Amino acid sequence: MDFAFSEEQQQLRASARQFLADRYDDGTAARVADSESGFDADVWPNLAELGWFDPELTFLEYAVLFEETGARLLPAPYFSTVALAGPTLRTDEELAKRLAAGGLRATLAWAEAGVQQGFLDHAGLAARVAGGRLDGHKVLVPDAAAVDLFVVAAREGSRGASAVGLYAVEAAHAEVVPRDTLDRTRRLGEVRFAGASARPLVSPDDADRAVAVLAQTRRWSLAAAPCEAVGVAGRALDLAAEHARSRQQFGRPIGVYQAVSHRVVDSYVGLEEARSLAYWAAWCVAEDDPQADRACLAAKAHAGEAAVAACESAIQVHGGIGFTWEHVLHRYYKRAQWLAAVEGPARDQRAEIAAALLDH
Amino acid sequence: MDPELARAWSRKLHDAGYTGLTWPKEYGGRGLTPTYQGIFLEETARAGAPGHVGVIGLNMAGPTIMHWGSEAQKKRYPERILSAEEIWCQGFSEPGSGSDLASLRTSAVLDGDDWVVNGQKVWSSYAHVADWCILLVRTDPDAAKHAGLSFLLVDMRAPGVEVRPLQQITGDPEFNEIFFTDVRVPRDSMLGEPGQGWQVAITTLLHERGTLGFGLTADLERQVNRLIALVKEPAPDGRRPADDPYVRDAVAGEWIELQGLRFTNYRALTTLLQTGIPGPEGSVAKLVWSEANQRLAKVAASVQGLSAQLTGEGAVWDGYWQYQQLRSRGNTIEGGTSEVLRNIIAERVLGLPRGR
Ligand SMILES: Cc1cc2nc3c(=O)[nH]c(=O)nc-3n(C[C@H](O)[C@H](O)[C@H](O)COP(=O)(O)OP(=O)(O)OC[C@H]3O[C@@H](n4cnc5c(N)ncnc54)[C@H](O)[C@@H]3O)c2cc1C
User: Fold this and answer.
1) Which residue owns the Cα nearest ligand 1 atom 44?
2) Same domain assignment for residues A283 and A314
3) How large is the C-alpha radius of gyration of chain A?
4) Is residue A1 situated within a structural domain?
5) Does A256 contact B352 at a Cβ distance shorter than 8 Å?
6) β-strands A133-142, A252-253: how paired?
7) Is the pLDDT at B207 greater than 70, yes or no?
8) Does A244 touch chain B (CB under 8 A)?
9) A195: CATH
């Protein structure tokens, strides 16, 4: 029995934590988040130096990194590049190389308006490729204005409705319309492609492979989101506990009042369970375990809700200051909401788990 | 389960080598790591098999005796716990001292070679069938609260011990009052020195934590599986609860809690194996388990509609869930209330200021 990170993984965690803490104290993080672009355009080479794009990394190392980037709200498209676009990028030699060298920021453009928007819901997609040119209108694209390349889910014009492929389109060939987004460090955008030059990465001719890559994409994002959520919930818990220790009212630190302390404890309990589930999911993905899909669903459902609850408790425990734009808490709250919402709310994941448990 | 059957099953487990997996060989155990115990408990749950009858002996009395006992005590007691030859109960709580356990008043006064015990214990599970009792008493009324306590091993058949069963909300008499009137306990039946009782009692709880989580997870797994079986059957009104989206959401939610508990235990066990010290994960297990167990039983009762009021033979599952719904209310009280556990986590894990 050894359900813990290795020494190397713990070193990776320590170096990531140090780097992020040095570069993004709360003040800096807020300035970047509220800037025009909302991201730190210069950090990418540093991440490459730290080894974050090393092709040797397994999902366990990514789990460590996502937890740390969640804890500091890294204002760069690492989640989008690695978890959303990554599974497709790695199928292509040239892009995998660019990614490994730290020269590629990418995201996934899959959702469209008016049709189901899960990673596996490709039946209604209208985006079409014909003669290497892509036409389509994608919505809810994470980090749309912060990337060099889009991985786009689309159909080949001439084929029937069922075949979906994944295409690479350079950002220069797309029109990006950023949308006002609650989480200002992971903004969503609309992306229009009008005859954009598109290179097939996973061809619709190979339908099984396309479905497998989409399934892998879903697994990676469902496993990455809870790891980030653990980082978010951990930071919210730390802030709440610290405030409960130091803020005095009625002549005593507010942490002596159980209405305060038990709330903080419940955040801790939720976090510990979320952590266990997130690490389990990460392990399953790294090992290609047959339980991977269920583990990812469980982790995503639980950690998303736990992170939102931890942030809400932290805001309450902080009183008025927790309700200000100035305080960092709202930024964590908004990220937690982002994570809880991606690929559907927790009840969607529970519905899938229920089907596996009850319908056979 | 019938007490004689329960003992016979426990003896079978012992003969087959499945008791005391983590206990030292010289005291009747197998000398294995907690991992083995964890695997055994998981498999027990999967098979739907009942556990060993001597839970207090196995989880509390045995480990504490092996940690604090004299060689003679270690030879005398542990093996008979494993073989279910002797059943133990725990005499800690008193009418005036529950959460604030260290305020207890049952006294023991040295007279010649005996401690003479007077006082009353309450809520003592299995005392009506027990042969022995781990008893926390006050030996020095002048010392500071915690420093005046001592830890005795008491023969439940000694003259002056009187057990009065108390009926629980389930209707079953599972716990008891114990009255001690001039009960003479041999001087060498103390664990640790006079005044060390609190430290000994704390060890009892610490030792428990290593594998407690596995027992609780195994228990929850059994309950989740039973809930799944129940909701797939037609309810008394003919509908199938598993078709109700709210029921589906609740079942999946408890299944997720179960996995959270399971992997929290694996993490706790890894910490324990690596450092020898139980990590903070262990303290989470009981809170999560007890509340999940309560929610789950309520779901099971709710799907029966008004039929959930029917009990005994002829009721759904012969009233199993009716019993479970009531029994689970004790889970957030016994072994430290949820409020007290939250206080402990607040102070010891999160470093929040002491409220008491
Ligand atoms: C099924 C069952 C089996 C048991 N078996 C045994 C046994 O075998 N041996 C044994 O010794 N005992 C046993 N107990 C007793 C159990 O340990 C006590 O009931 C428990 O410690 C609570 O003590 P109390 O009942 O005196 O309640 P109290 O301590 O009076 O508590 C009443 C309420 O006040 C709350 N409260 C108390 N102090 C605080 C605080 N500081 N902060 C916040 N809230 C607080 C409690 O959480 C509870 O909700 C058993 C109890 C049950 C229900």
Assistant:
1) B339
2) yes
3) 21
4) no
5) yes
6) unpaired
7) no
8) yes
9) 2.40.110.10
Return the sign of the alpha-carbon dihedral for residues B270, B271, B274, B276.
Answer: negative
The Cα A271–Cα B280 span in angstroms is: 12
Q: Say whether pLDDT at A122 is over 90.
A: no
pLDDT score recorded for residue B42: 84
How many angstroms away from the CA of A194 is the closest CA of chain B?
A: 42
Structure tokens at A81: 């590049």
Residue B147 CB less than 6 A away from ligand 1:
no
A4 CA to chain B: closest CA distance, Å?
7
Mean of per-residue pLDDT scores for chain A: 95
pLDDT of residue B193: 96
**Is domain B3-82 classified as CATH 1.10.540.10?**
yes
Q: Using a 6 Å cutoff on CB, does residue B237 contact ligand 1?
A: no
pLDDT in tens, B263-315: 998 888 888 788 776 666 667 888 999 999 999 999 999 999 999 999 999 99
Other C-beta atoms lying within 10 Å of the C-beta of residue B162 = 13
Contact B93 CB / ligand 1 (< 6 Å) = yes
Contact A301 B256 (CB under 8 A): yes
Q: Does A275 touch chain B (CB under 8 A)?
A: yes
Q: Is B102 in the pocket of ligand 1 (CB under 6 A)?
A: no
Kindly give the distance from the C-alpha atom of residue B291 to the centroid of ligand 1, in angstroms, as a whole number.
Answer: 16
In this structure, which amino acid lies at residue B250? A
Among the candidates A35, A67, A100, a domain finishes at A100
Domain residue limits, chain B: 3-82, 88-194, 211-349
Domain span holding position A335: 209-359
Find tokens 């069922």 and name the residue: A162
3-state secondary structure string across A196-264: EECEEEECCCCHHHHHHHHHHHHHHHHHHHHHHHHHHHHHHHHHHHHHHHHCEECCEEHHHCHHHHHHH
What is the spatial distance between Cα B37 and Cα B178, in angstroms, rounded to a whole number?
Answer: 32
**What are the tens digits of pLDDT across the range A330-339?**
999 999 999 9
The answer to whether position A179 is within a domain reads: yes
Read off the pLDDT band of B214 (50, 70, 90): confident
Report the domain count for chain A. Answer: 3
Distance of alpha carbon B54 from alpha carbon B82, whole angstroms: 8
Residue of chain A whose Cα is closest to the Cα of B225: A357
State how far residue A106 is from chain B, nearest Cα, in angstroms: 33
pLDDT for B274 = 81
What span, in angstroms and rounded, lies between the C-alpha atoms of A191 and A207? Answer: 25
**Is residue A2 a part of any domain in this protein?**
no
Look up tokens 């797994």; give the residue. B221
Q: Are residues A43 and A65 in the same domain?
A: yes
Interface test with A, best of B248, B261, B270, B275 (most A CBs within 10 A): B248
Topology of domain B211-349 in CATH is Butyryl-CoA Dehydrogenase, subunit A; domain 3 (1.20.140)
Q: How many CB pairs under 8 A join A and B?
A: 137
**Ligand 1 lined by B172 (C-beta under 6 Å):** no
User: Would the CB of B343 count as within 6 Å of ligand 1?
Assistant: yes
Query: Are the C-beta atoms of residues A303 and A280 closer than 8 Å to each other?
Result: no
Catalytic residues of B: 208
A250 contact residues in B (CB cutoff 8 A)? none
CATH number belonging to domain B88-194? 2.40.110.10
**Atom number in ligand 1 closest to CA B89:** 8
What is the model's pTM? 0.95
A178-187 pLDDT tens trace: 999 999 999 9
Nearest to B346 among A1, A252, A261 (CB): A261
Residue of B nearest to A274 (CA): B260
**CA-to-CA distance for B172 and B186, rounded, in angstroms?**
34
